[in-house]
Amino acid sequence: MSARDERQSLSSRTTSLYDYALFRHGIEPQDRIPRRGYPLPDGTPPEPGRKDLTWEQARADVTSALTPLLADPDPVRAAEAVHRRVSALEMPHRTLRALTTPLTLTDEDAARRTARRLTRTGTEAAAVSVGIALLVRLGEPEDVPCLQALGMLRGLQSAATAALDPLDRQAAALLVLRGQDRSEQLAPLTAAIATGDAEAVRSALVALPDDPRAMLFARRIAEAADLDALLRAHPGDTGLLAVAGRLLHRMCRQPDHRSDILDYLPAKAVYTHFVGQAGLPTPTPELHALLVSTALDLHSGPSALLDWDPGLREALLDALERTPSGGGEETAPRLADWIRRHEPLPFARRTAGAVPGGPPRWELAVVQSDAESSAVETRILVDGLPLLPALFDKGPGNAPEYLVDDGGLRAGPEPREVQLAEAHCTEGCCGALYVTIRRDGTEVVWGDWRGAVGPPPPEYRFDAAAYDAEVERAERDHSWCWPARRTARLISAGLREQPDLLGRWDLAPVWLSTDHREPHTTVVRLVFTSPDGAEDPHGNPLRLYFDWRLPDDGSPPQERAAAALERIAHSDPKGFAPLARGSSKLARSLGYSWSQPGVDP
User: Fold this and answer.
1) Sign of the CA dihedral with 437 first, then 443, 447, and 452 last
2) At what angle are helices 238-252 and 218-225 packed, to 10 degrees?
3) What are the two backbone dihedrals, phi and then psi, of residue 445, each rounded to the nearest 5 degrees?
4) Among 11, 285, 381, 419, which is least packed by CB within 10 angstroms?
5) pTM for the complete prediction?
6) Residues with Cβ < 8 Å from 429, sequence gap 6 or more?
7) pLDDT digits 0-9 by tens, 126-137
8) What is the C-alpha to C-alpha distance for residues 320 and 308, in angstroms, rounded to an integer?
9) What backbone phi and psi angles, to 5 degrees, belong to 457?
10) For residues 417-444, b (16+ Cβ closer than 10 Å) or e, as one string?
């Protein structure tokens, strides 16, 4: 029988998805697995769904249908009944899995046996999904091979990964990398991992491009490659150490989810390897920058929240402080400038612990993530530990322009609510973190939290004199700022002091900062609203947005900002700032081409 005939025969409903997955993997050249996984035997049918089904009703239906079956001591009988019931539910598989995982189980052993029967002999994706969802809670090491095989099938990868994570992190990570690497930059690494050859894995890892699309999966790369074991086997391997530093730093980033470093189990061991070896002898400028980044992460970033053994984090910071400089004439100017501005931060203000029974210590740190990014966050430390990563997992602290400038964190006579962090996708999508700041005699109080993850945060009471001194110090400290960002801040301050500069042109400032991909370019974003109050079909005012970009030309920020303000004073920015986006109707009325990029047709 030909491979094609065999494939057709395997689409029969009598063949389990587990056997089908093993077959497909066995006949593929070089054991290749498509990025989205192998299609199911009967293709990839649309997920069933009931538009009138609410989440509450779905939960009730799943509970009613499955709970009695999962207590049946006969797994064969129970699995057959589950097959019939889930087909009748006509529910999306993702919803079915989400509702199955937390079910109350009266007999976990019986449910485990049924789950194994479903995953090994199930012929339909819905029933197999129920089995995988149960193994998220009930799985044991013997279930790993089956879950690995099912994870190769389209639509089952994420569920299999969730079940594998507590059992075999390396296997789970490999599924993630194969299924989500759209750039295919990780293909050589995943192929090497599949061979089990540690030397091939090391070579592929060292050759990994330092590209954001690859580094997006930093934790999974480290888990799949068993980075901890590689570092132990190859001490002093500078190429491997550099990759380890990049992966650790990327895991500390918090763009729109909980920082991955907090879920990387060998994090403390890998930090110890990296810090102990990377600075010897004299690091390259790039490696020196990684060491500075590591110090910032350990001092005020999410990795400070790991369950450190007493004194270990402090010892690593001490070692980093003693690391020889990697600078020199060959260092790129932007990298050298970033190192110069950030190298003192983790060490300059380290103080002793809080006094027992006394008010908590607090301090502010402003950090630019790296030399090639304009991302800047305000970090708030309480008793030497970062506060925001512990309370909010959708994005880092807001930029200093929002929190520090113009007394954003000052404690006035009246309580004031302050946004400390916002979700990367905007507050309207995934929320934001707020605190109310008030003065109470000799103390400043932070309380009435909104948007925090987990249990409600406690009320913090700080010594008012120490609090005010720290706010004033942060407001005066612009050492973190580079010229283009300084120019933006000065222009913003000038527009606040002279609101008529833009008002005369019927414009308002929207955003003044630096370009995300070109941090040495100042961007002044202005908005023009239709003066006749015209609205679009959704009831929103018609607007045009203009982006005025000012690349750094080497002149002092004060001169560049003064020149920009002078130009706005004498010329309508709508005449020289390019139109970025907005209403085509309004654009045409002002003589702009509606076909310009960013303008709604």
Assistant:
1) positive
2) 140
3) -110, 130
4) 11
5) 0.86
6) 423
7) 999 999 999 999
8) 17
9) -65, 155
10) ebbbbbbeeebeebbbbbbebbbeeebb
